[in-house]
Design brief:
6-stranded parallel β-sheet; alpha/beta; 10 helices; 13 strands; Rossmann fold; globular
Length: 312
């Protein structure tokens, strides 16, 4: 039985990891809520892992948000995410944890990186300014794992997922990511009978989206490898424009009105498509078709609205 601590188990990614661990079996899960363990409190994190002594740590906890949240609260994003990464990686080393997996983000790569972006693009150019703070913190976490592995011989490695969506997402009208924001907006527009919905920006940027169940499966696949890459991209290898995405979400939610764009709002990075050949070479492939994944995400949104558990 492998003792596994999942940091951030209540979030969208963390809860998917819990479900995957339970499905696979063979894991003794260790979790802690924010009230039980403040991951920004170094002493508390050191003491917790020293007491629990897990065999594996997955660092899925993070302060996350969309363009608006990242632009409005950059200090919060860099401080909290740096603290979470440094506290958990060093606490794992001190507690003798032999294996740790850190979850980053595709935003670590330069704004104008060649597409699709492979792992060697890291630190070859300027970052997208609207999420620079978050990206720098995630780069630091990746580098922590890489250098701890090199210096201490520990199998600490990282996965860099593309844009995620699925059950348990955050549907806040300003601080959410694009898919949950669109799901809520189109759902409410359908309920009101609105004639149109306006989306941010020109609608032309291209984005890649990975269902959180696919990410969870990828994480446990990487943990099964004896010698995984220091960091590896996790995505689907395909992308859509934001306008195409909005059209798909409208169809999923039953919205039949007009979709308008607002070019006065920022677009963010023109394109973010990951080269996933490295993880594919290890035997992993994404499994959830996009239309099916959107339907699953929308059904979860409706279910959580009904129970009052939606993160609004």
């Amino acid at each position: 039985m492998t003792k596994l601590f999942i940091a951030g188990h209540r979030g969208m990614v963390g809860s998917a990891l819990v479900r995957e661990a339970e499905k696979l079996g063979g894991f003794q899960l260790v979790t802690a809520t924010r009230d039980q363990l403040d991951l920004c409190d170094q002493r508390a994190v050191f003491d917790f892992l020293a007491a629990e002594k897990p065999d594996v740590v997955i660092i899925a906890a993070a302060k996350v948000g969309g363009i608006h949240a990242n632009s409005t609260y950059p200090a919060d994003f860099i401080y909290e995410n740096l603290s979470i990464a440094s506290n958990l990686v060093e606490a794992s080393r001190r507690a003798g944890v032999p294996r740790a997996l850190f979850l980053g983000s595709s935003c670590i790569y330069p704004k104008m990186a060649p597409q699709p972006m492979n792992e060697d693009c890291l630190l070859t150019g300027p970052l997208e300014v609207t999420n620079e703070a978050y990206a720098i913190a995630k780069i630091a976490g990746l580098k922590l794992c890489q250098h701890y592995r090199a210096q201490h011989g520990l199998i600490y490695h990282s996965a860099m997922p593309t844009n995620l969506y699925g059950p348990g997402d955050n549907y806040h009208p300003e601080n959410s990511h694009v898919i949950p924001a669109l799901i809520r907006r189109f759902h409410e527009a359908t309920q009101r009978g609105d004639a149109s919905v306006t989306i941010w920006g020109t609608g032309t940027p291209r984005r890649e989206f990975l269902h959180v169940h696919d990410l969870a499966a990828a994480c446990f696949h990487l943990l099964s490898l004896e010698s995984p890459p220091d960091w590896v991209n996790v995505g689907v290898g395909d992308d859509v424009t934001i306008l195409e995405l909005a059209t798909l979400v409208a169809k999923t939610t039953g919205f039949t009105g007009e979709i308008l764009t607002d070019p006065t709002k920022p677009d963010g990075t023109p394109r973010k498509l990951l080269d996933i050949s490295k993880i594919q070479a290890t035997g992993w492939q994404p499994q959830v078709p996009f239309a099916e994944g959107l339907a699953d995400a929308y059904q979860d949104f409706i279910a959580t609205l009904t129970t009052g558990a939606a993160r609004l």
